[in-house]
Amino acid sequence: MAHLLHRFGAKALLPRKKGDKILPPLISFENALKLREQFYAIGFQWPYENIVPGKPQLPPGSEAYAARQREKEQKRAAREKEIADAMAAMPKRIAEYRESRKLDWSEVSALDRLLLTPGQIREKYVRRRLMRQNQ
After folding, report:
1. Which domain holds residue 116?
2. Would 49 be classed as within a structural domain?
């Protein structure tokens, strides 16, 4: 980029014309801004201030847009943190769930073991216990 600027001077920063077509400059505006920063970083004065004066001013009303974007990003980050915390607690919650669904066969009476199917036993002992806990 700098070699183009050295070779062509201000023409490298201006749009070009080829026949009836208008072509973009050899050095894009973003690259010109980078070169400008490099000039100032090493202590030189940017000689093309009239062509590339610096970052353009934001259009009016863009502050509200930027504020909405920041707010969305904060919400997104909070949601990601919430999900990460929930995922970290997931093994414990799964273990608790499995433990709550286990059937303690010592509670089941001998008569129920003989007369009821496993599904009926589960209904009588596990599901009813869970319903009482949730009420």
Report:
1. 103-135
2. no
